[in-house]
Every structure is written in C-alpha cells, then in structure tokens.
Specification:
With 375 residues, this protein is α/β, with parallel strands linked by helices. 38% of the residues lie in helices and 20% in strands. Helix 1 crosses helix 3 (59-67) and helix 4 (83-96) crosses helix 14 (322-337). 57% of the residues are buried.
Amino acid sequence: MSAHVTATGYARFGRRPESLVELAAEAASHALEEVGRKPIDLLVVGNMLAGAVNATENLVSRVANRISVETAAGLRVEAASASGAAAFHAGVLAVESGQYDRVLVVAAEKMTDRPTPEVSAALAHSLHPTEQVAGATMPALAALVSQRYAQRYGVAPEVFDAVSCAARAAAVHNPYAQFQAAVTPEEVHNSRMVASPLRLLHCSAISDGAVAVVVERGHGPASVLGLGQAFEAMAVVDREDLTTFAATRSAAERAFRRANLGRHDVQLAELHDAFAPFLLIDVEDLGFARPGDAPGWFTGSRPEGSPVLNASGGILGRGHPVGASGLAEIADVVRQLTGRAGASQVDPRPTTGLAHSIGGLASHNFVTILGGNAP
C-alpha cells in the first residue's frame, strides 16, 4: 500500500463542555498544525450518534467550516462503534485511488450531556431489530458472550478484574485518557453489577472526545501495511459460537494477507475492549493466542514475543466516545511507531503495530496494520 500517517491530533477523552463540532475541530487543528497547515484534499468524518444524541446533522460541513477547509472534498462515515476505524479505512482508500494526496480523517463523539438511559437506547440502535424489540442493551448482550466464554474455558471473575486493572494502570500514563487513576482488583470486584458477570468497572465509560490523523501518499514509519474488515450476523442468536467474533477473524486474515506479515511480526496492539472479557476474545481471534489461552496472559506470564496490549489504556482506560475510539486506536499505534507516545511509549520502540475495532456487538469489525517496513 502507498499511504502513511503523517500527523495525529487529540481532544482529550472524558466529560467535556465543548460541543461535538468543537471537539472535532480541536483534534483536527492539532493534526493540521503537525503538517504545517498544508492544504487538505479530502475531509473524512467518522461519527455514530450526532443525529440521535446531539441533534446535529450535516456534520462534515460543520467541521469543514469550523477548521476552514471548505475547499476540500468531504464525506461522513458511520459504522457504529467502529466509525473511527471505518473513516480511516475510507481515507486510506481515497489516497490509494490516486485522486487525493492528503486526507484529514476526524472522528468524534459527544455523549455525556445526555442521560445515560437515553445514550444506552441510542447505542442499542446498532443491534438487530429483534434484539431491540426484546429490550436488549449492549451490556446485556455482552454479558451473554462473557458468560459463555467463562463457562467454556473455566475463566474466573478475577481474570476479568485483572483486565480492567491493567487498562486503568496503563491509562495513568496517557494524558488524553478519561481515567487517570489506577484501580485495585478489590475495587473492580466490588463495583456495581451491571449484567452478570459484568460489573461497572468491567464496562467502558460514556465519554466525549475526538481524534484526527492526516494520511498522505508515500511511505514512512507509520505506513499503512494492511487493512481488513468483515461482517458477522447482527443477531447474537444467529451466531454459531459466542466465544469468538467471526468478523474479527476474517478481518484479521485479510489485513495480515495484505500486509504479507505474520502474527509474530506485531509488537504492539491496540484492541477494542469495551468490555473486559472482549479483550481476551480479541487476543484469540487475532491469532495471538489459542482459544482459551488469553486468560493466562493476565493470571500468569505473557508468552515471550507476544505484542504489548493497549499501552494507551484501551477503551476501558481511555474512555469510549464511540465514534472516536476506532481512530484513537490507530492514532495511538502511530504515536508508538513514531516514538511520540510520551509516558506511554513502549521500549524498545515498536516497528509494527495493529489496531482492532468492533462495530456494534462485533457485527462489523476492522483490523489495521501499520509499520515502517512498507515496500
């Protein structure tokens, strides 16, 4: 592939007073400053809930106007909680087409100014209609997946607690993360039950925030090596196996094949851990561990040569402004590859990283591989 990321920008995740457009503009401005305000050919905006939660439409025009790039082309991309990753893939493909030389990708979400039940109902719109009619919510269905995984592989609740603790510990070093304090296993175990076995600290938090990257033609330390995306049945009841996400497995195969790399080549991975058990499933679906082996990464020693996981704190530590999270994972990988991750920087600096994003309840998933060994 012939595209690479030359700049990143963030609007810190958390409870923010700014509007959705203001958050997007903040992140975009930081990214544009990194490239010296060079002209942008295309603006791609990723977002999930602008209409449902913010009563804001024509979002790409609003953002373009705010950051003064009205001379560029533009489009908005939506893929539920993978909207940020989908927007990035669209931006890369636009560069690959040869029609655009420099693309600004922005992903943003504003969620905290609405009541939690209202936000939960909006998120449930990404589920299958039969699940919505039955009153299902994202945490409820995630709990069913978690129950099945724990039952099949004999996973104790303490393993899920350890995943949440690791996320919060990593987030302490990320100045853009919503959570800046570590938690103990006891705090996780004693947090409120949401849907068994998921407790409050096993679940990602409603958040505001935005991320932006600039994608240009050519190669560099953060070149796009492989892209993959895939679908799975939307309705959980229609899936053959609840302990794995078929969309992740297929997307990973496509991305690794396009990159001409193996799992052992990946030194860093930013994975979608909206719920603590999902991180274990992600590790296995991406081929870093065999089915049922991922819990051992948190109860014993991690296998030699395995990638560093979620150095940013992941979604559990960073917060989950849903439309922005997929792009945050990619931007965090870029910063690691370019040695600009600050206190979160992995040593030695990785040369190849992977970002993984889940849309809906894993019905539309994305895998992105970046690194400096492009042809």
